[in-house]
Amino acid sequence: MHLTSRSLIRCICKIKMGCARLLTIVTIVIVLMIPISVQNENIECPHKCDCLEEYVYVDCSKKNLVSVPRIPKWVGKLNLNYNKLTNDVTNVFEGLLSLQSLKLDDDAFTSIPIFLHQNQIEEISINRNNISAINIGHFPANSTLKSLSINGNHIKVIEEGALNNLTNLVILKLNRNEIVSLPNQLFKHQSNLKILELNHNKIHVITDMLFRGLSSLTTLKIKYNNIENIMDGAFFGFKSVNLLQLDHNRIQNISKDWMYGLESLTTLSLSNNLITQIDFGSWEFCPSLKELDLSHNYLIEIENRTFQHLTNLLTLNLSYNNISAILQEAFSHMVQLQILFLNRNKISWTVENMTGPFSKLQNLVKFNLSDNHIKSISSRDFEGLSNVVELDLRSNNITSIQQHSFNSTSKIKKLYLNSSSLICDCKLLWLVKWIRDKVEQNYITATCAYPAEVRGVVISRLNEDNCGDSPEPQITEHPNTHLAIKNRSTNLVCSATSKPFSNMTFLWKKNSGNISNPQVYENVTLREHGKPYATSVLGIPDVTNSDSGKYQCVVSNKFGTTYSSEAVVDIVTFPQFTHTPINVTVKTGNTAILNCAATGDPPPEISWKKDGENDFPAARERRMMPTSHHIFIVNAKTTDMGIYSCAAKNSAGTIIANATLSVLQEPPFIMMENKEVTSGDSVVLQCMISGSPKPALKWFKNGSPIVPTERHFFTAHDQVFVIIGAESSDAGHYECKITNELVTKKDIELKVLPPVAITVNEEDMLGLFEMHGSATAKQRMGDKQM
Length: 786
Ligand SMILES: *C1O[C@H](CO)[C@@H](O)[C@H](O)[C@H]1NC(C)=O
Ligand SMILES: *[C@@H]1O[C@H](CO)[C@@H](O)[C@H](O)[C@H]1NC(C)=O
Ligand SMILES: *[C@@H]1O[C@H](CO)[C@@H](O)[C@H](O)[C@H]1NC(C)=O
Ligand SMILES: *[C@@H]1O[C@H](CO)[C@@H](O)[C@H](O)[C@H]1NC(C)=O
Ligand SMILES: *[C@@H]1O[C@H](CO)[C@@H](O)[C@H](O)[C@H]1NC(C)=O
Ligand SMILES: *[C@@H]1O[C@H](CO)[C@@H](O)[C@H](O)[C@H]1NC(C)=O
Ligand SMILES: *[C@@H]1O[C@H](CO)[C@@H](O)[C@H](O)[C@H]1NC(C)=O
Ligand SMILES: *[C@@H]1O[C@H](CO)[C@@H](O)[C@H](O)[C@H]1NC(C)=O
Ligand SMILES: *[C@@H]1O[C@H](CO)[C@@H](O)[C@H](O)[C@H]1NC(C)=O
Ligand SMILES: *[C@@H]1O[C@H](CO)[C@@H](O)[C@H](O)[C@H]1NC(C)=O
Ligand SMILES: *[C@@H]1O[C@H](CO)[C@@H](O)[C@H](O)[C@H]1NC(C)=O
Ligand SMILES: *[C@@H]1O[C@H](CO)[C@@H](O)[C@H](O)[C@H]1NC(C)=O
Fold this sequence. Notes:
Layout: H1 5-13, H2 17-33, E1 57-59, E2 77-79, E3 101-103, E4 123-125, E5 133-134, E6 147-149, E7 157-158, E8 171-173, E9 195-197, E10 205-206, E11 219-221, E12 229-230, E13 243-245, E14 253-254, H3 256-259, E15 267-269, E16 277-278, E17 291-293, E18 301-302, E19 315-317, E20 325-326, E21 339-341, H4 349-352, E22 366-368, E23 376-377, E24 390-392, E25 400-401, E26 414-416, E27 422-423, H5 429-438, E28 448-450, E29 474-477, E30 482-485, E31 490-497, E32 505-510, E33 513-514, E34 519-528, E35 531-540, E36 549-557, E37 560-563, E38 567-579, E39 584-587, E40 592-595, E41 597-601, E42 605-610, H6 617-620, E43 624-626, E44 630-633, E45 642-650, E46 653-664, E47 675-678, E48 683-686, E49 696-701, E50 704-705, E51 712-715, E52 720-723, E53 732-739, E54 743-753, E55 768-769
The structure holds 2-acetamido-2-deoxy-beta-D-glucopyranose (12 copies).
Residues 252-253, 277 line the site of one 2-acetamido-2-deoxy-beta-D-glucopyranose.
């Protein structure tokens, strides 16, 4: 008898029918029992009364029983755990109408005892026995059983319909068995079931029919199975389920198709699966989700829509994944979120270079970013986190924290920071002050790595006297925004220095992504004004349209990383002539056409100059008319003559083509006359011309060029031919030929007479006018006395 006085007192205090009876009966029972359990001489069972329970409790555990002792009818709860009971207990429990709870854990059952008689048992546990199957015929129709626990057996098979009589079941636990698969609609009569546990089995597929009928289910635990495949609609009808645990399985994808129907779900845990993919829209049918555990999976990227619809989420665990990319809007749906675990991922701030990625999480209280690859923290990283109280940044080799990084986090109390890589330059003094003013200091154990004098010093002990210059790269030359000409080469140059000077690595980014196969020339360290610097040149040897974009160089050394400003490169195409002007000659009054047109990107503008001047007669006098490919100069004048330059200009550059415009005036002869002279006289033959350009003159006598002699010479630019002392041999037919593009001839007949009388005849002369063989003209020549 181990009834302590205390429990006795309680027993009496809270006395109930059964208990009162027990107090008197206990002794009798013990006496009765001795002969039953022959093999166990020290048996004292039942021996315990605990009236705190609603039912009379009898503990017969750990008695080495091989068979069930006779149980008094008043027993309400019977504990037969840790005995050696086997299957031959059928009917033993018959007639125990008070029996409400039966524990048969850690016995030696190889199948479920048969309870096919009417009783009121509501709770049976047969954990850790050697049951290998659940067959039909163990439970009576309309069984009162509410809770059945058969954990830790070797159940492989559950016969189809085996649970059909358990219509009142509320809790069913089948954890730690060897179930590989379950028959479809096994639970179709369990419309009252609220909790179903199947942890630690070998289930590999959840079919769409398996859970049909579980309309009251609130909790489903299937952790530690081999689930690879969850069929579409597998949880359809789970309108009451609020807790679903699928941790430690082999699930690869989260898909809307199987999430369908989980409308009341508040907690979902999927940790330790093989999840790489979360389909967009997966959460659409579980808007009530408050807690989501995706830790220990293989997620790489959180996209804008990965968590779409999770507007009520309070806790999100993404720790222990491979997350390296978080898109700008990834968390913006979760305005209610209070706890976010992102620890043990591959988040690297500097690489992402994001702006306020968490800025919508204004209710976040606890934020864990420990164990990532964060090297520096920029001022916008924690923007908007106005309610964060706890921020864990441990196990990141953080080198720098920009001023104002914690502007938004005004409620922060615990900042965990243990980097031993901090660059304690004077720029970090703000942090020292901030820590002193705002947070509980004992969570901050970060120490300086640089400068050497303060290496190992806890950041809180940094002050104006021991801080130094920043050893992070400083960009001395940012890449330039410029226009690159298609099909030519272009360069982007980035130079940086650091103090002390250390090896720097340059990385070029285009539109925030990496450049594939960049041609980078890195220059040796040079000295200029005694200051060394390193240069990286990104070469684009043959520019194409796809090279346009925003370029940025990222310079790192062992102390940190610095980003250059972004250089915008736009691609242009150099102008190229499609029509070039050629030299043109026109007659005065006619129209001159000068070709000029060019292509290019942007399309070039065409402009004209004459002899290098913008202001020229044809333009001034509005005689110039442009068309798409050429200009007309109408009513050409001699003042229009000159070199015309056509310029085709766009932002890539300018090309120029020249052409000469000649405007010809018909050369009018001032005077031409036939002459008769007396021998011995001197003769003057004139061939006065005007015209432009000043034409060249050639004199011929009887068809042959005239060679000047002592008596024959030219003067006045060859317009005058003089013969001194004419002789009869000088008589003949003289010609003066004018050549510009319009060839003209004048003939003079010279007669040399014997030296007597002189007569002068006036004679009409025919001037032959030719222009490109198309026109002739007659000209009346004036006559004049010598
Ligand atoms: C990345 O950082 C640089 C320098 O701090 C900044 O100029 C740029 O705007 C940032 N880019 C993004 C997308 O945040
Ligand atoms: C469990 O039962 C199987 C047969 O069903 C038997 O081979 C095995 O030895 C039993 N294990 C224990 C621990 O009793
Ligand atoms: C249900 O109960 C009836 C009557 O008690 C019994 O004959 C039948 O085998 C039971 N069915 C199952 C599946 O246990
Ligand atoms: C079980 O309950 C149903 C409905 O309550 C009743 O129709 C049926 O007769 C009962 N079966 C037994 C064996 O008590
Ligand atoms: C997971 O998703 C990927 C891509 O959508 C698909 O190729 C793969 O078959 C899916 N795996 C499973 C187990 O559904
Ligand atoms: C994600 O959202 C940002 C900001 O709205 C947007 O710039 C970006 O293009 C989006 N990315 C994708 C893949 O939708
Ligand atoms: C952080 O620094 C420690 C010591 O310098 C080093 O062992 C560790 O690999 C670094 N971790 C990362 C993620 O760079
Ligand atoms: C942070 O606050 C300071 C002072 O209140 C202000 O000057 C600064 O612009 C703020 N920085 C950011 C990034 O909000
Ligand atoms: C800098 O880089 C060069 C060449 O890569 C290497 O030989 C040298 O050891 C490096 N110096 C330091 C201080 O890392
Ligand atoms: C290296 O720098 C010098 C001086 O700035 C420059 O003349 C040279 O072209 C650079 N070399 C390369 C490969 O960029
Ligand atoms: C056009 O005229 C200029 C000068 O008169 C001359 O130098 C040039 O060669 C000419 N061009 C052609 C194509 O004839
Ligand atoms: C075209 O003419 C301009 C001025 O008339 C002169 O400066 C330029 O050198 C010429 N260009 C060519 C290619 O002849």
